[in-house]
Predict the structure.
Amino acid sequence: MIEGKDLVVLQKQNGETMENIKAIVQPDMIFINDSSLPIEEGDHFIRKLPNGLRETYLVLDRGFYDSGYGIKAHYQCEVQKVTTRELEQPKQVIYNLYGANSRVNNNSTDQSINIVEMSSDDLFDEIRKALKENIRNEEERRELREIVNELEVNQGTNKFNQLYTKFVTSAANHMTVISPFIPALSQMLQS
């Protein structure tokens, strides 16, 4: 391998530095013939430019190559300029989530199940509230509210199962409104 004409400083993660290391510096690679150096991923190389400025490179892959085929052991370090790396940092995204069943999916399918503890009184109050806020047809809303009242009264009885089926069937056109409550109601079904 050709002897490097650039001089770099190896700055270890623990703060230790090694100076005057001969290297060949390229935008994304640094070649070093000294195989005795303890170069590790996360270390930095610092190169002083002729104009007095400094370039700092982060070691992404130390790229150690053992001797063979007439070539001495050496490093071909994959690096990235720290200034370039800072410019490429992803933009911060803030998600403001509200409610007990809030979720975020980025390029994925949601297969999670949320379990929310609430008393049965609160559950039926929340169902009535959702019906009131989301169902415009007064007759449908009244019919569903009556079934919810019957469900509440018949908790723990065999009649609850029949009323549950009636409620789900009657509210079929409003599944988006009642679907958050189905898991909790299903847990109340008698075996």
